[in-house]
TrEMBL record:
Protein name: Aspartate kinase
Length: 172
C-alpha cells in the first residue's frame, strides 16, 4: 500500500489537555461560555461520541483556571471530576490530496512505534494528533519516517514550524 503524500507536518508549542465530563451537552456548553468569559482560548477541540468525551487543548497558563471551572461545572451537574493532562503537543499532518485513510495510517504507524495519541481531530485539510511529551520524540520519528518527511521539526518551546515534504516545495 502506498502512503498518502503530505504537504508537511506542524508541531505546536506545549499544550495542556482538559478532559471534562458530560460530552457535548449543557455542562460542556457552560464550560465553553465560562472559558470565553475568562478570555481563555481553546487551541484544540475533539469529541468522541462513543465515549461522550470532549478533549480540550489549552495553553498551559490557562489550564489551572479552566480546570477549576470544569470542576465547578462537574459538581453543579453531578458529574465526575475532570482530568487535566499537562505537557502535550499537537502534531498536525497536511495531506497533499483528499485521503480519508490518513488518520488511520498515522495512528497505525504510531501504534507500531508504541505511541497512542491522547486525542485526535480531523478535517478535510488536516489531521491533528495530541501526543504526550514523553512520547513526542518517538512519534515524530515514526511520522517523519512513515511519510518521508525531512528532519528538522522544531522543539515544543519554538512554538510552530512547518516541515515540508520534498514532494511539495515552492520553487518561485
Amino acid at each position: 500500500m502506498s502512503l498518502p503524500r503530505l504537504a508537511g507536518l506542524k508541531q505546536s508549542g506545549e499544550l495542556s489537555l482538559l478532559l471534562p465530563r458530560g460530552g457535548l451537552g449543557p455542562p460542556f456548553f457552560a464550560l465553553c461560555r465560562g472559558l470565553a468569559q475568562r478570555r481563555v482560548n481553546i487551541v484544540f477541540l475533539a469529541h468522541d461520541r462513543s465515549r461522550e468525551q470532549a478533549s480540550v487543548g489549552l495553553e498551559p497558563e490557562d489550564a489551572p483556571q479552566a480546570l477549576e471551572l470544569a470542576r465547578q461545572i462537574a459538581l453543579d451537574h453531578g458529574l465526575g471530576p475532570p482530568e487535566l493532562i499537562g505537557q502535550t503537543t499537537a502534531l498536525t499532518l497536511f495531506p497533499l490530496a483528499d485521503n480519508p485513510a490518513l488518520p488511520l495510517i498515522a495512528v497505525g504507524r504510531l501504534a507500531e512505534a508504541g505511541v497512542a495519541p491522547l486525542a485526535m481531530a480531523t478535517s478535510l485539510a488536516a489531521v491533528t494528533l495530541l501526543i504526550g511529551h514523553r512520547h513526542l520524540a518517538t512519534a515524530l520519528e515514526a511520522l517523519t519516517r512513515a511519510f518521508h518527511l525531512p528532519a528538522g521539526v522544531s522543539p515544543p518551546q519554538a512554538r510552530v514550524k512547518v516541515v515540508q515534504s520534498p514532494f511539495f516545495r515552492r520553487t518561485d
